[in-house]
Amino acid sequence: MYQVFIDIIGWVGSIEVILAYGLISCHKITAKSLWYQVLNLTGGAFLIVNTIYYGAYPSTAINAVWLIIAFIAIINIYRSKSEL
Fold first, then answer.
1. What is the pLDDT of residue 82?
2. pTM of the model as a whole
3. Which of 4, 20, 63, 64 could form a disulfide linkage to 47, CB 3.0–4.6 angstroms apart?
4. Is residue 81 over pLDDT 90?
5. DSSP of 30-80, one letter per residue?
6. Can you give the residue ranges of every domain in the chain?
7. Rounded mean pLDDT of 58-63?
8. How many Å apart are CA 2 and CA 63, to the nearest integer?
9. How far apart are CA 42 and CA 20, in angstroms?
10. Cα gap 77→15, rounded to integer Å
């Protein structure tokens, strides 16, 4: 049962990252969009859980960097809104 939960988290994370990429590629959102960054942040986090479980550490590393970038971008989005 636990493995099924980890698999679902991995699939949700994959869908979120692909959705974010698709939306930005089709010009439906911008990189400054909170929606885009949240999709990347949660997608990266879910993929980290999945890749750690399966021991896919190179994928864990790239998703950790992905998550950090999204987190910094979200902070910058909030900072720029507070300056208005």
1. 83
2. 0.90
3. 63
4. no
5. -TT-HHHHHHHHHHHHHHHHHHHHHT-HHHHHHHHHHHHHHHHHHHHHHHH
6. 2-82
7. 97
8. 21
9. 11
10. 23
